[in-house]
Design goal:
Layout lengths: L2 E4 L9 E7 L6 E2 L4 E6 L4 E5 L4 E6 L6 E3 L3 E6 L6 H9 L1 E4 L2 E4 L39 E2 L2 E2 L3 H10 L17 H13 L16 H16 L2 E9 L1 H12 L7 H15 L5 E3 L4 E3 L5 E3 L1 E3 L2 E3 L2 E2 L7 H16 L5 H4 L4 E5 L18 E15 L2 E15 L5 H16 L7
Parallel strand pairs: 16-20, 20-21
Antiparallel strand pairs: 1-8, 2-4, 2-7, 3-6, 4-5, 6-8, 9-10, 11-12, 13-22, 14-15, 16-19, 17-18, 21-22
Helix pairs in contact: 2-3, 6-7, 6-9
Amino acid sequence: MAEIVRMPKLSDTMTEGVVATWHKKVGDEVESGELLAEIETDKATMDFESFQDGVLLHIGVETGATAPVDSILCILGKKGEDIKRILADADKNVIIKDKESVPAPSSSPAPVEIAAPVASVAPVAPVAPVAPVPSPLPATPLATNTRVISSPLAKKLADQLGLSLDRIPGSGEGGRVVKRDVENFKMAGATGMPVMTQEKFTEVGVSQMRKTIARRLAESKFTAPHFYLSISVDMSNAMQARKAINDQGLYKVSINDMVVKATAVALRKHPAVNSSWLEDRIRYNEHVNIGVAVAVEDGLLVPVVRFADGKSFATIGEEVRDFAGRAKAKTLEPKDWEGSTFTISNLGMFGIENFTAIINPPDACILAIGGISNVPVVKNDEVVPGHVMKVTLSCDHRVVDGATGAAFLQEFKKLLENPVLMLV
């Protein structure tokens, strides 16, 4: 008997999915456990395997189309089986809301088995990029009796530069060529860049990932009362320790690996910072799972280094590099990004000296890491060259108070300025 396969909920925050690729076409045999399609969620593109044997009788969401969770993804059954009644009955359970079709709630998320067959529910069309739309702007120079309208100063400057006024777009009233038009035209010729005389823009549809980032971070920023604590860390000893480790040639350690380790060890000593706001209670985590923000094409993913306080620099580095590669390839799985107790966002490698980050819920804090700057520092009452890194801790004031956050930062600073303490 034919069975409806519905759009699965592949992550805790997923509300709709996009079919990236179908690996089967209508009429193909499908076995249980066989790859049926690839579905783009709000965080990654994931393989979706069939849970039953059968023939693919109907595709409800075409490649590239978006559909809400629990909507009809496809129908599997016996070859030649009539599915019109199934589609008709499914259509009756659809609620029309805000001019969009939203599947009615069902008592069970499992595939619905219905005996008979109806008209096909059209898949939700994908959002297509809107082509650049030119907006009307100042018209091109108007000519009267083949003469270009221009200011005397513009004409004089054009003559001096050997430029023809009829080639210069005018921005003055009625398309009149003025001095700045001649100067801009000359500059464009020197740089090889075209002169823009019309406003242009391109609009593209918002990806599932960007929608989720927008929703979650807006909720965090507008719900959690953020406050910020900044501190400067002398990284001279950390850089020397990193060089000594890397010179051995056994493995490579980055400053980010040392930052993750220092954060994890400091959190073990300050569990109030390693906590979560759960509305009617606060959870103080005894384990330390560090979420490391990774930039990808569509936005940001935060894979989790679990039990980071007990891992070496090298192990942390291997995990973070693996996560970064799989994040960019969109092959991360839900278990890779779930369960963080604290988050780190590092923009130092992009030349950013200092910034603040929005808390990644349900974590109570996020640490923003800036780049290392070569600046003068005072040591033993003498000004000497130093390597300083600025960090800023964003705290949810419902959970963490100023003194608590400051104590954590002092411990973090001590560990990075004395890396040997992280090895004991």
